[in-house]
Design goal:
Length: about 475
C-alpha cells in the first residue's frame, strides 16, 4: 500500500502547480471544470479514509505526531466559536477547509514508509516543479501580454451549499507586467517560489557560483511577481539560512548589504512621490519594493492592512476576544462593523479582510483558536530545531529540519500580508515537506541511523 500512495503524492507534487494550465484547455463545461479543481483534494481525502479503514481492519492505528492534540483542540475551539456565534455547520466547514485540507498529505506521508531515495526524489520533484515555474515566469516577462494570455486561468464560479466559489481571471486584476507562471495568480506564484527557494537553500551548505545563479533566478522571478511580501520573505529565508549554516565571517559580510538596503528604504520614505498603484501603471521592480516605505503608501495602508492591525484587531480584542465572531466570515465581518468600535478605521467588507491573516484568525476564531494554531507551528518548529541540533551527521534530516523551520518562519511572516495558508500551491507543499520531515524522524525507530545523542520519545511521531 505504501508504494501506490507514494506514487500518488509524487504525481500531485508535479500536477498541483500545472493544474490551471491543464484544466484550462480541457474541452469541458465550466461546472465540470470547477469540479475538476477539487479532484486532487478529494482523492487525498479518499486515500486517507481508505488507509484508516485498512489500519482499523488490521487492528492498527494511524501514526500520530505532537501536533495532533493541537489540531484536535483547534477543531474543538472552532466548534465552540461556531456554536456561540450561530455560524452554521456549512459555513464552519467552508472556513476550515482551506486551512486544514492539506493536512491529509501530511498524515499520509507519516503513515507510509519512505526510504531516503524516495524522500530525495520527492524533494527533487518539488525543485523540478519550481524550475518549470521559473521558466514560465521568465517566458511571460520576455514575451509580454501575448505570451501571458496563454497562461491566464479560466474564469468560472459555482455554488455549493449556498456558498459561491469563484475562480477569477487575473488579466485585469494584478500588477501591470507581473508574472504568474501557471499558478493563476501573481501572489500565489511569489509564495510558491518562496517554497522552492527554501527547499533549494536547505539542500546547500556552501556558497558558490552555481548556488548564486539559482538564488538570483528565484529572487528575480519572485520580484517579477510584484509580490512585495514574498520578495521580503525570500530575503528572510536567505538570512536564516546564512545564520544557521555559515560562519560568522560570512554573516558579517552581508551586514553592509543590509545597511544599504535599509538606507534605500529610509531615503525612499523621505523622497518618494505619491504612491501609484502598480495595477494601474507599470512600475519598476525597485519602485514596487521601495514605494511601500513612502508616507503616501502608509496613509493608504490605514484603510487596508494597517487598518486591520490598528483597527479591527483591538476592536475584536475589546469585544469578543476569547472565541471571536465565529467562522461564518460574512456574518463575522458584519458583526465587527456593528460594534461601532472607536478603533475601526472604516466599514470593512470581505474583500481584503483576510490579507492580514493573523487578524482574520483572531476575528473568526478568537485568541484561543489562534493560540492553538500557533502551537501547531510551534510544535513543528520544536521538532525541526531538535533534529537540526541532534543529527549533525545526517545531511537529509538536517536539510529537512532546516527547510521546515525556515518555512514556519516565513509562513508566519507572510500571514501578516496574505492568506498564504489557504493557497493551494503553498499549503500543499508546506504540509508535504513537514510530512517528509516527520516521516524521516519516524524511520529512526526502525533504521540504523546513528545519532550523536539519544532521541527522546516525545520528539518522535507516535505509533
Amino acid at each position: 500500500m505504501d508504494k501506490p500512495i507514494y506514487r500518488l503524492i509524487a504525481l500531485l507534487v508535479v500536477y498541483v502547480p500545472l493544474e490551471n494550465l491543464i484544466l484550462k484547455y480541457l474541452p469541458v463545461p465550466n461546472f465540470i471544470y470547477s469540479l475538476l479543481r477539487f479532484v486532487p483534494e478529494l482523492i487525498l481525502y479518499g486515500v486517507l479514509i481508505f488507509l484508516l479503514h485498512f489500519r482499523m481492519t488490521c487492528k492498527q492505528s494511524l501514526n500520530g505526531t505532537l501536533i495532533d492534540k493541537y489540531v484536535f483542540l483547534f477543531l474543538i475551539s472552532v466548534s465552540c466559536s461556531s456554536a456561540l456565534n450561530n455560524s452554521g455547520l456549512i459555513e464552519t466547514l467552508f472556513a476550515l477547509r482551506p486551512i486544514l485540507r492539506y493536512l491529509t498529505i501530511f498524515y499520509l506521508l507519516i503513515n507510509i514508509r519512505l526510504d531516503e531515495k524516495q524522500m530525495q526524489f520527492l524533494l527533487g520533484l518539488i525543485l523540478f516543479s519550481g524550475a518549470l515555474q521559473v521558466f514560465f515566469g521568465l517566458l511571460q516577462y520576455l514575451g509580454g501580454p501575448a505570451v501571458s494570455q496563454i497562461f491566464y486561468p479560466k474564469a468560472s464560479n459555482f455554488e455549493v451549499g449556498g456558498q459561491i466559489k469563484e475562480f477569477i481571471l487575473i488579466e485585469h486584476g494584478r500588477e501591470v507586467g507581473s508574472v504568474f507562471g501557471t499558478l493563476g495568480d501573481t501572489v500565489t506564484y511569489g509564495v510558491f517560489i518562496n517554497i522552492i527557494l527554501v527547499v533549494f537553500l536547505s539542500s546547500q551548505r556552501n556558497i558558490g557560483f552555481k548556488m548564486g545563479v539559482v538564488i538570483a533566478s528565484l529572487i528575480s522571478v519572485t520580484a517579477l511577481s510584484y509580490s512585495r511580501a514574498s520578495t521580503f520573505a525570500g530575503i528572510i529565508a536567505m538570512f536564516i539560512w546564512i545564520v544557521r549554516t555559515q560562519s560568522k565571517n560570512v554573516l558579517m559580510s552581508f551586514i553592509p548589504i543590509a545597511i544599504i538596503a535599509l538606507g534605500i528604504g529610509a531615503a525612499s520614505y523621505e523622497t518618494s512621490g505619491p504612491y501609484i498603484n502598480p495595477r494601474l501603471k507599470q512600475q519598476s521592480i525597485s519602485e514596487n519594493l521601495t514605494k511601500v516605505f513612502s508616507e503616501d503608501y502608509l496613509e493608504r495602508a490605514k484603510s487596508q492592512r494597517l487598518g486591520l492591525l490598528v483597527g479591527v484587531l483591538p476592536a475584536v480584542l475589546s469585544t469578543r476576544a476569547v472565541f471571536g465572531f465565529g467562522p461564518n466570515q460574512i456574518q463575522a465581518i458584519a458583526n465587527i462593523n456593528r460594534t461601532k468600535s472607536k478603533y475601526l478605521t472604516k466599514v470593512w467588507t470581505r474583500d481584503g479582510f483576510k490579507d492580514v491573516y493573523w487578524v482574520a484568525l483572531v476575528s473568526f476564531f478568537g485568541v484561543i483558536g489562534t493560540g492553538l494554531f500557533i502551537l501547531i507551528f510551534a510544535s513543528l518548529a520544536t521538532h525541526s530545531i531538535f533534529a537540526w541540533n541532534t543529527y549533525v551527521e545526517n545531511p537529509l534530516i538536517r536539510s529537512l529540519a532546516l527547510c521546515t523551520f525556515i518555512l514556519i518562519v516565513i509562513t508566519s511572516f507572510l500571514m501578516f500580508f496574505v492568506r498564504v495558508v489557504e493557497f493551494r500551491a503553498y499549503s500543499f507543499y508546506f504540509w508535504c515537506i513537514a510530512g517528509i520531515f516527520l516521516s524521516s524522524l519516524r524511520q529512526l525507530k526502525t533504521s540504523n541511523i546513528v545519532s550523536p545523542q539519544p532521541v527522546p520519545n516525545k520528539y518522535l511521531p507516535k505509533t
